[in-house]
Amino acid sequence: MSLQLFMKKNKKVKENVFYAPTKSLLDENGLPLNWEFRHVSTKEDEDIRESCTMDVQITGKPGAYRKKIDTNVYIAKLVAASCVVPNLNNAELQDSYGVKKPEDLLKELVDDPGEYQDLFVFIQKYNGFDTSMEEEVEEAKN
């Protein structure tokens, strides 16, 4: 196999996708607004995970800690990082909802828990998290 095949110029770029995450924001025709989402890189995902990870002391073991990720914060930051339109960093949009962080604005815009969960599942699949660990283990066994 040629090394040339691995060169960056040959790497497929994932196109942005459109998805309407909530039925509470409608266009002039009464249809849910499509938002634009981009692919999050492995490096970006690592940075997001790291920002959501904390050291938690192990009970009964003074001075011993383990890493714990705050999954709710991780979910919000991953979805916010994926969102292109609307711009969740826009101060005017944040002010209209009385928030100052993209993750908080996201939760204001998609305030239905079911829609928020569906949006996260959509973003996970789009970013390559489309099989569970159990599915991967079962596939490896076969």
- Please give the order of strands in the largest beta sheet: 1-2-5
- Please state roughly what percent of the residues sit in beta strands, choosing from under 5%, 5-15%, 15-25%, 25-35%, 35-45% or over 45%: 5-15%
Report, as a whole number of angstroms, the end-to-end distance: 27 Å
Q: Note the overall shape.
A: flat
Tell me about the largest β-sheet: 3 strands, antiparallel
Runs in which pLDDT lies below 50 for 5 or more consecutive residues are none
Say how many strands there are.
5
The helix count comes to 6
Helix share, percent:
40-55%
Integer-rounded radius of gyration: 19 Å
- pLDDT average, as an integer? 91
- The helix-strand sequence is EEHEEHEHHHH
Structural class comes to alpha+beta
Written description of the protein model:
With 142 residues, this protein is of the alpha+beta class. Helices cover 42% and strands 13% of the residues. It has helices spanning 42-51, 71-82, 91-97, 102-109, 113-126, 133-141; strands at 17-19, 35-37, 53-57, 65-69, 83-85. Strands 1-2-5 form a 3-stranded antiparallel sheet. A hairpin with a 7-residue loop joins strand 3 (53-57) and strand 4. Helix 1 runs antiparallel to helix 2 (71-82) and helix 2 (71-82) packs across helix 4 (102-109). The mean pLDDT is 91.
